[in-house]
Amino acid sequence: MRDLTSDTITGAVISTMRDTKDPRLAEILHSLVHHLHAFVRDVELTEEEWAAGVDFLTRTGHTCTPTRQEFILLSDVLGVTMLVDALSNRRSVKSTQNSVLGPYFREDRPEHSDAADISGGLTGTPLFFEGRVVDREGAPVPGAGVDVWHSDADGHYDMEVPGRTDPAMRALFRTDGTGHFGFRSIRPASYPIPGDGPVGELMSATSRSLMRPAHVHVLITAPGFQRVTTMLFPSDDPYLDTDPVFGVKQSLLDSYDTYEADAGPRRGLTDEPYTLLRRTFVLEPH
Ligand code: MBD
Ligand code: FE
């Protein structure tokens, strides 16, 4: 046998996988080894650097908890999440575009009926959300599941609010016969992605900002339609152009109109200025 060299090792590894049963897995592994080796050759990775990389990934795994998914965050800040979305979801321009799921979705959210207050007693500018779910022809989609979740005025999601364990600022709604859902909550603020773990080290080493623009997450499922995982941003947020997870799209900007307490469509429901977000979500058929 011949000793392997830096020229022959890539082919040797790939040929060990030639009996892979699943053809798609074979294709993925072949390409992964090819590109991984090319990367190592390209930068002439040293032993110390490779050890640091393994340590980084190990700590990324150790930072994962049920409420903190550091690997998802790593995928988000490297643009992989949005790249996979761009390749998987070539939707018609009329349909609502996807964004990042992010690390703060919770399965244990409560189900609420229309017009519920989901602020959990937290204080902030009142936010009224009025949504509609329709198909590409504009016909209402009744019975769609609509998950919403967002942060408070300090940028904390419920699990990060000191001293709080109950779900707040999140709920699952069902659209009514006309495709409507709606709720009351508090207006979210821009805030930094978690910076105290390995992803934070990567961000500071590359002098990147942790600040995400304010947003309300919306996830919609309905039989016969593609799932929509999206979010809405205030169109005047100062962090739109530097979102660390690349989730901003022009079509997901919203004016987040603010009214005095005695003016606008929700006048009289609050005694302070409030924000009204109205949005029609257009689903793409399967
Ligand atoms: C968030 O709130 C978020 O939505 C994403 C995608 C990443 C980090 C924090
Ligand atoms: Fe978020």
Automatic annotation (TrEMBL):
Cofactor names: Fe(3+)
Listed Pfam families: Dioxygenase_C, Dioxygenase_N
Single annotated GO MF: ferric iron binding
GO biological processes: catechol-containing compound metabolic process
SUPFAM superfamilies: Aromatic compound dioxygenase (SSF49482)
Domain annotation Intradiol ring-cleavage dioxygenases: ranges: 129-157
Keywords: Dioxygenase, Iron, Metal-binding, Oxidoreductase
Domain of life (superkingdom): Bacteria
InterPro entries according to UniProt: Catechol_dOase_N, Intradiol_dOase_C, Intradiol_dOase_core, Intradiol_RC_Dioxygenase
Family label: Belongs to the intradiol ring-cleavage dioxygenase family.
Protein name: Hydroxyquinol 1,2-dioxygenase
Species this chain originates from: Streptomyces fagopyri
